[in-house]
């Protein structure tokens, strides 16, 4: 188990259209992820806003 294996990458040959398709899929997959993150952050801001509102002094 003491043998170390080294990997050297000389170059990656990806056709242009395959790269375009991959980037489009990545962009489309980020939309639902951003909706989930936005929902989580809005829930947290609602909770913390309500909690911190209890400690505010009203004039």
Question: Can you describe this structure?
Answer:
It is built from 1 helix and no strands. 66% of the residues lie in helices and 0% in strands. The chain has a domain at 28-52. Keywords: Membrane, Transmembrane, Transmembrane helix.
- Report the mean per-residue pLDDT as an integer: 88
Counting DSSP H or I runs of 4 or more residues, the number of helices is 1
**Structural class by sheet pairing and helices:** mainly alpha
Radius of gyration based on Cα positions: 24 Å
Shape, principal axes of CA atoms: elongated
Succession of helices and strands: H
Determine the N-to-C terminus distance. Answer: 71 Å
Helix content: 55-70%
List low-confidence stretches.
Answer: none
Largest sheet: none
Number of E-type strands: 0
Strand content: under 5%
Offer a quick outline of the entry:
This protein has one helix spanning 16-54. By secondary structure, it is mainly α. The mean pLDDT is 88.
């Amino acid at each position: 188990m003491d043998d170390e294996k080294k990997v050297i990458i000389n170059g990656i040959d990806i056709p242009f259209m395959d790269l375009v398709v991959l980037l489009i899929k990545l962009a489309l997959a980020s939309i639902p992820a951003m909706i989930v993150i936005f929902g989580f952050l809005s829930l947290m801001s609602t909770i913390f806003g309500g909690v911190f509102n209890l400690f505010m002094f009203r004039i």
